[in-house]
Amino acid sequence: MKYLFIFNVISSTLFLYYYIYSSIGVMAELVPYKRNARSAMILSVILNSLISAWVRINNIDSYVAYLLIFLIMLLTFYLCLKTDWQVVFFAATRFVFYLFTARGFVISLYSLIMHQPIRDIKGYSFEYSIIYLLSIILALLIHAYLKRNVLIKSRLQVLFRNKEQVLFTASIKFVLGLYLMILTYGNHYEGNDVWFSLIQLLSCFIVTGIAAFVLENSIRSAEIVEHERQTISLQKQVDMQVNHYHAYQEFTSQFQEFKKEYLENLSKVNELLRKNDTDSVIKILDTMGSSLTRRVGAHHQYSNNPFLDALFQEFANQCRRNDIEFECRVYWDKEINISELELVRIFSNLLQNAFEAVEKLSDHRNININTQVLDEWIVVVIENNFELKEETNNLAKGLGMQVVSKTMEDIGGLYTWSTKENTFRVYLNFPKNN
């Protein structure tokens, strides 16, 4: 029995380590690691081991142990991952919720099957070592099932882009977990032990069902919001192309009128040249030149890519209406594998960000876009002035910048930024697909 107890303790500890590693690994597929993530994992393993040993030796109430584990995992995810506090809270709550709910299932079933009251199962006992081992295994199975069938990477990415839904889901799970902890504390009081075990088992089912419903609803809500954003982006795309078409149509119409006038005057010029009436020819040519300047406006081409050119044409009009100087020359390579929707996501967010920063200035209102052509990359540089008192993090973060970073990552590109004095620069590295 002694050796079996030691085996249970060692096995449950190893399974706990794997559960910690697996939980952090799932989150790391969605957000990047911090530099000292490995050290944070080791620290988490040590602290969780110490807590488990302390709880078993001193027969501490389980809800105290799991609250301490929750605090440790909050610290762990914060030290391991480069992300917002809502995602850290979500990850820590998810970790403890699965573990504590699994314990509730196992200990309730054990109590009913073995006809042993829950309050008589001590933390240092052989029975609890079996329960704890089975709880961690069940938590791992739940974790693996959800990862494969519900919490797939693409759905979690959508959820994490909506921080309100992340916080809502984590808060509901946290409250449900607290409810189970309060219920667990009830085993201290005398009463019908079978009734209490049944209530705890039923509560675990109810809490798990509610948590699953809330998570699924939150993901669906985030997907609906994401779909709405994509619809708006597509609408903007259509509007820009229509506006660009009308502008180009007006330009060609004016040019056709000038061409007709030019052909009519050409015969007059030829006749006057035969008569050596150069003064009259010069007057006609001057008139034609001023007519061309007056009637046919300059059509600036900002990019060799028609879609990008339409996007920049619309933005140039917006800048012109707000007295902002806009200069742009973007060379685009057809080998870059990117959809028009992804282009809208990237450039509409960055241009809007630059516009809002420059709009606050009273002078030096400039936005410049240029291109650097490298062997395997096309680098688009967007730079704008900004108020020195404004935090650079406000320019580089936010939902729009997260969308840009994520979209660039999806196409295998790179998004970086820098500041120098009062100039903010964004570097977009687009890979060529040779």
TrEMBL record:
Every Sensor histidine kinase NatK-like C-terminal domain range: 341-430
Gene Ontology MF terms in the entry: kinase activity
Keywords linked to the UniProt accession: Kinase, Membrane, Transferase, Transmembrane, Transmembrane helix
InterPro entries: HATPase_C_sf (IPR036890), NatK-like_C (IPR032834)
SUPFAM superfamilies: ATPase domain of HSP90 chaperone/DNA topoisomerase II/histidine kinase
One family name in Pfam for this protein: HATPase_c_5
Transmembrane segments: 6-28, 40-57, 63-81, 88-113, 125-146, 166-188, 194-215
Protein's name according to its UniProt entry: Sensor histidine kinase
Species, as recorded: Erysipelothrix inopinata
Organism taxonomic ancestry: Bacteria, Bacillati, Bacillota, Erysipelotrichia, Erysipelotrichales
